[in-house]
Amino acid sequence: MVPQMVLLLCCCLLAFPPHGPLVVEAFVGGYGVNYGRIANNIPSPDKVVELLRRAKIRNVKIYDSDHSVLDAFKGSGINLVIAIPNELVKDMAANTSRSMDWLNQNVQPYLPQTRIVGITVGNEVLGGQDQSLYQPLVDAVKNVYDGLKRLHLERKIELFTPHSEAVFATSYPPSACVFKEELMPYMKPLLDFFAMIGSPFYVNAYPFLAYISDPEHIDINYALFKPNKGIIDPNNSLHYDNMFDAQVDAAYAALHAAGYDNMEVRVAETGWASSGDQNEAGASSENARTYNFNLRKRLFLRTGTPLKPKRPVKAYIFALFNENQKPGAGSERHYGLFLPDGRISYDIGVSGLLPSSASSSVLSIKNVQAGGWILQHWATVLLCCFHFLGAIVT
Length: 394
Description:
Keywords: Glycosidase, Hydrolase, Signal. Residues 1-26 form the signal peptide. This is glucan endo-1,3-beta-D-glucosidase. Its EC number is 3.2.1.39. The chain is an alpha/beta fold. The protein has one domain: Glycosidases (TIM Barrel, Alpha-Beta Barrel). It contains twelve helices and 13 strands. It has a nine-stranded parallel beta sheet. The relative contact order is 0.13.
């Protein structure tokens, strides 16, 4: 009788798992969103949290450590990545006391109510125009990690720095991608350190930017995940039917060439502009909807790339809202999934704060997945019942 009761207990634990993991997960599933705020017309942080919950978005990345945002996310259960912006990199590199001060002001007081699961140190520093930040970036990362260790948070908060495509000397074909030689004096110690602490390599991958740079030679269907003949990498015969996968595998190829085969590649930013300047070919609401819907569907499948088929891709979409005060090309202000009032910009299968006039014919991928989980759950419960009845009969 005792073994049968043990079996029953195990079944019940499988059917009704405990709420949440013991250790904070840095990224749940495969899909997240960047919450940029260079705008004067977007909802308040508390409304944004409500919006994220309705849209079932569980991973969010911001570009600073604004306390109003950290307060709004308290108790939300949403995984939040905060940032040390580029202008603070030199301060963080100066000594460990500066990084400790930052952690004590922006991280420690908010845990565990606000689920801060990651910290980015700078954004697109290497390969950027300000070369005076190259060496400080490496020192800043190490000092922030030392601070996390002092607070016993190094196993709960992931540390990384996102890179742009500018760190690569070439990216086509994907297998030929390597890091720029002039960046290796800074990239190598950075990768050595991230390999030691187990951090992924984060890249900002934008098929949109690649397409507008050469619209005459790049098939827009290849950039948008639409049916196309794709490309075959001549070095390994791998077939790519979309540019996003090719960009991810290019990053893997660069890591392999540099000697970091075991490092995971994640995407810190990707998206498609719904509008832009006249010379920004392909910037339209229809293309933005197509790209983001197909990308979301691709990420929810939790599949890998042609080069790494067993390693599911994880990505943060750019961005939650259009940012009307952002400088630069017109497209920079038109990446938002949602309008300022919380309605969806276009239908990719998520809900907004208000009903939208956009077509609602798209089936929610998460609802499909949830249905499958419910069936599996109740199958487990029924199995427990059969075992329990069998124990009573015998």
